[in-house]
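Narrative summary of target 7.
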Amino acid sequence: MKSRLILKFASTIMLLIFAVSVNAQTYKNTNFSGNLYLGMSNMMGDLGGSNFIGSRGLMDYDFRSNRLAGGLGFTMHTGGSFSFGINFLATRLYGDDAFSEQDFQEERNLCVRTDLLEGDFLIEYRPFSRSSGFNRFYVYSGVGIMYYQPKAELNDDWYKLRTLGTEGQYLDNGPGPYKELQVVVPYGLGYKFRLAKSTSIILDLGFRKTFTDYLDDVSGNYPNLALLEEVNPIASQLSFRSPEILPQLAGNPVGKPRGNPDDKDGYFIGNITFSFN
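Modeled conformation, tokenized:
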């Protein structure tokens, strides 16, 4: 299933590149650039962030959750207002209920780090390409695929949460594990500063719309911890961590909200890019 999804995505990208390349032959000023970028990421999910249950987009931004992000790309610039590129990104997203002042999140006491790889096909548009003052400003969007792996720490060991099934995914009549490969829609804006004839520095601010609520492994309700304990004691302990800070909350919170499935997770990417034409 994974290989089929990757093959379909790669085939679509190759067809888009071919179509764009053929179309670009009509422009005399077509050129190409290699891009190397470094920046930071910030997860917009159920953990930490704003004082709400679930993601609230930019309202979930918390400086303490920033993590390093980096990658490389290849862009084709036409003589008109459009550019077309392929980018690859690697980062580690982070979310922590300790960063929230909302009682529900503080008591929930969950924390996650999510290793993430992303590949995109992007279309850039320069709306002011004929203006000498703003011709290097651009907006962009596209489509991509991401691989993500949420993990949590317990007794100095890190555990892959998807494998454990902290919301009862592997119990009888459970929903099964969520997919670790997902489609992602990148969009954002940026500005290019020319350093020399062939080099530029780019400031890029981007967002990622996903179609999963499990970037942080938190979405629905608590499972039956007694049953989960029989299947995997580690999964049970990482599912319900309130007693670690509030022993009086010990018990079986089966059916109680653990997250908010109505809002999908997303993430923010801010980069400084070095581009060589």
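Helices lie at 2-24, 103-108, 161-164, 225-231, 233-239.
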